[in-house]
Amino acid sequence: MRLDGFEVFVVGGGVGGLAAALALRGRGASVTLLEQSAEIAEVGAGLQISPNGVAVLDALGLGAEIAARGVAARAVSLRRHQDGAEVTRMDLGRLAPDRRYLFLHRADLIDVLAEGARAAGVRLRLLQQVTGIEEGPRPAVVTAQGVRSDADLVVGADGVRSRLRGHLNGAAPPRFTGQVAWRALVPGPADHPPEAWVHMGPGRHLVSYPLRGGALVNLVAVEERRSWAEEGWHHRDHPDNLRAAFAAFGGAVPGLLAAVEDVHLWGLFRHPVATRWHGDGVAILGDAAHPTLPFLAQGANLALEDAWVLADALAGAETREAGLAAYQARRRARAARTVAAASRNAWKYHLRPGPIRLAGHAALGLAGRFAPGALLAGFDWLYGHDVTREA
Cβ distance 28 to 4 under 8 Å? Predict the structure, then answer.
């Protein structure tokens, strides 16, 4: 199907929405992106862009700019909470030369995507709160101002609270996982290498990695608790609460936490992967289709994959309906597998003292020493998949 002149509205100016707008525009579509905020921007946070996500950014023509702004990751290092001693490491240098793994500030990724979209001719319309989306031969969006606009396709990239997700799939209340997470940025200590450090402790773990050439370090700290915390990571908390939760951690952790001045807390909730990703002239992607827990760092990467496949499936189909069906067929199983794997991952970092933790850490240490490529090989299905080269 030729997309020249094909009119598209994309709702949401995050990673998935901007990438979809750029990918569809690259196929010839006429794209308008609607964002409810006053600017296309993001507050401070870090992202891990694994090779499957980098492949999409390369295909969008943004690889050089992303590499210039990101930190090339060298390894993922699993460490004991007591003293920071390394248990094992996943050497990312063993990845093939064309498979890059980057640490990137979310705001930098948003900037690059937005600049690319503007340069390609995507119309970015701000302060556009979408209150309704209608299916049909000419699907439409309705804004809070009461303006109704139709197009050939409407894409819902508006996150976990997506109106279009609810319209397509009905209500599905999320389930609290019994875990909360803090996110913070601190000035980068000179001795933090280009690695993701995962300090593993009883019922909690803390991840740190450098951003912007080491000028900053991104912190994500997860704790198991019974008390509920609101979903969404824009909720502020006091740094002393974070420091108290990780007071038993040693190594580099006390120094990193001492530097925290501004921190956000959010509850981690499980959402089902959407059953329906498309309707009559409408489609969802990213968190609107498959919200995922952060334990594989794949939220942004899956959204980038969705964006590319949506544009590719439409361009390769004879009709809009066939293209949307192909998009879901190519994406849903992989997204569901990734979401399930992320949901299973947290417990590995939270083992309590005792024989199970001793055995688990010993097995990881032996694997890292005698079969250093085995841990990385376990992620081939994830990192090695390149949606831009799918047949």
Answer: yes
Residues tagged active-site: 209
Give the dihedral sign, CA 125/126/127/132. Answer: positive
Residues contacting 44, CB < 8 A, separation 6+: 105, 106, 107, 185, 216
Q: Look at residue 37 in the predicted model and tell me its pLDDT.
A: 87
Q: Residue 125 pLDDT > 60, yes or no?
A: yes
Q: Count the domains in the chain.
A: 1
Helices 51-59 and 299-315: crossing angle, nearest 10°? 40
Residue 199 near residue 251 (C-beta atoms within 8 A): yes
Q: What is the band of 135 on the pLDDT scale with cuts at 50, 70, 90?
A: very high
What confidence tier does 226 reach under pLDDT thresholds 50, 70, 90? confident
| 29 pLDDT higher than 60 | yes
Which residue has tokens 């020249």?
4
Give the pLDDT confidence score for residue 231 in this predicted structure. 60
Please check whether residue 185 lies inside any domain of the structure: no
What span, in angstroms and rounded, lies between the C-alpha atoms of 111 and 77?
Answer: 29
In a domain, 45, yes or no: yes
Q: For the whole prediction, is pTM greater than 0.90?
A: yes
pLDDT in tens, 69-85: 999 999 999 999 999 99
Q: What is the pLDDT of residue 351?
A: 64
The rounded distance, in Å, linking the Cα atoms of 128 and 338 is: 32
- Domain around 62: 7-74+100-173+271-345
CB of 326 closer than 8 Å to CB of 316: yes
Within-domain flag for 126: yes
Q: What pLDDT shows up at residue 370?
A: 44
DSSP one-letter string for 332-391: HHHHHHHHHHHHHHGGGG-PPTTHHHHHHHHHHHHHHHH-TTHHHHTTHHHHT--GGG--
Residue 71 DSSP symbol? E
> Looking at the domain assignment, is residue 86 inside a domain?
no
- In what helix (H) or strand (E) does residue 321 lie, and over which residues does it extend? helix 320-345
- Enumerate long-range contacts of 235-238, CB under 8 Å, 24 or more apart: 235/264, 235/265, 235/266, 236/262, 236/263, 236/264, 236/265, 237/182, 237/263, 237/264, 237/265, 238/263
* Contact predicate 174/231, CB 8 Å: yes
Distances (CA, A) of 64 to 68, 115, 279, 350, 369: 6, 14, 36, 37, 35
Q: Domain holding 107: CATH number?
A: 3.50.50.60
